[in-house]
TrEMBL record:
Belongs to the biopterin-dependent aromatic amino acid hydroxylase family. Keywords: Iron, Metal-binding, Monooxygenase, Oxidoreductase, Phenylalanine catabolism. GO terms for biological process: L-phenylalanine catabolic process. Residues 1-267 form the Biopterin-dependent aromatic amino acid hydroxylase family profile domain. It comes from Pseudidiomarina gelatinasegens. Pfam families: Biopterin_H. InterPro entries: ArAA_hydroxylase, ArAA_hydroxylase_Fe/CU_BS, ArAA_hydroxylase_sf, Aro-AA_hydroxylase_C_sf, Aromatic-AA_hydroxylase_C, Phe-4-hydroxylase_mono. Fe cation binds at residues 122, 127, 167. Pathway: Amino-acid degradation; L-phenylalanine degradation; acetoacetate and fumarate from L-phenylalanine: step 1/6. It catalyses: (6R)-L-erythro-5,6,7,8-tetrahydrobiopterin + L-phenylalanine + O2 = (4aS,6R)-4a-hydroxy-L-erythro-5,6,7,8-tetrahydrobiopterin + L-tyrosine. Its EC number is 1.14.16.1. This is Phenylalanine-4-hydroxylase. GO terms for molecular function: iron ion binding; phenylalanine 4-monooxygenase activity. It is an enzyme of class 1 (oxidoreductase).
Length: 267
């Protein structure tokens, strides 16, 4: 989160309204319309229910107050406008205060299919529907409180648990695999890959294992961790996660299931 962004977040006016351009609104429309074709039968029921509750506009980028009204009424959460990239301290502080950070920019056409930075489409379409779910909201809140008080090294381990749940988590339901991770739900390619491909491993989530599993943000995931229902997030949130972090630090990381990231001239 300390890297420089190529994007500049749009600032709200005195009434909290952001003036999105016609192109911004068109990109939002095209991203949402495309993903709505991919998620039926793949996204979990809790996500689809949250999407219905939010009633996101198709023709324009939503205003944050529209999202906040629904989140406040369901779980007491809010979204908070932030610059493109924020420090870990601020990220955890917001989550600990039931505020989900949303960078107020949207990707360009050139990065339509994949963007390393979380934009407003990823944050609102990918994550906010599940923030209407009590178990998911509780897990995210507890995670923020833990991260706020963790050391920098502990935060690196905590980040892996977030990655394999909030960003790339799967449910193993009676109807088959379903997605609850926002990193998958905002990506058509990963939506298909996570559910239908025989390439990745899918293993039941053991929190200690997730804390020890390396990941890369710029590839399709070689491993996904599954839980049986979103209710399990209540149980995970109430474990002594920091004791598990310390155990993971002692045991060390598993071998990566991916090749090292190629070095660039700029690296």
């Amino acid at each position: 989160m300390g890297k420089q962004s190529n994007y500049v977040s749009r600032q709200p006016d005195e009434n909290g309204i952001i003036a999105w351009s016609d192109e911004d609104n068109a990109v939002w429309h095209d991203l949402v319309e495309r993903q709505l074709k991919h998620i039926p039968g793949k996204a979990c029921d809790e996500y689809m229910h949250g999407l219905d509750l939010l009633g996101l506009p198709l023709d324009r980028v939503p205003q944050l107050h529209e999202v906040n009204e629904v989140l406040q009424a369901t779980t007491g959460w809010q979204v908070a406008q932030v610059p493109a990239l924020i420090p870990f301290d601020e990220f955890f502080r917001l989550l600990a205060n039931k505020q989900f950070p949303v960078a107020t920019f949207i990707r360009t056409r050139e990065e339509f299919d994949y963007l390393q930075e979380p934009d407003i489409f990823h944050e609102i379409f990918g994550h906010c529907p599940l923030l209407t779910n009590p178990a998911f909201a509780h897990f995210t809140h507890q995670y923020g409180k833990l991260g706020l008080n963790a050391t920098p090294k502990e935060r690196v381990y905590l980040a892996r648990l977030y990655w394999f749940t909030v960003e790339f988590g799967l449910l193993k339901t009676a109807d088959g695999l379903r997605i609850y991770g926002g990193g998958i739900l905002s990506s058509p390619g990963e939506t298909e890959y996570a559910i239908n491909s025989d390439k990745p491993e899918r293993k039941p989530l053991v929190p200690l294992d997730a804390l020890r599993t390396p990941y890369r943000i710029d590839i399709m995931q070689p491993i996904y961790y599954t839980i049986g229902s979103t209710e399990e997030l209540f149980e995970i949130a109430d474990l002594d996660i920091m004791a598990l972090v310390r155990e993971a630090m002692e045991l060390g990381l598993f071998e990566p299931k991916f090749p090292p990231k190629p070095k660039t001239d700029a690296a």
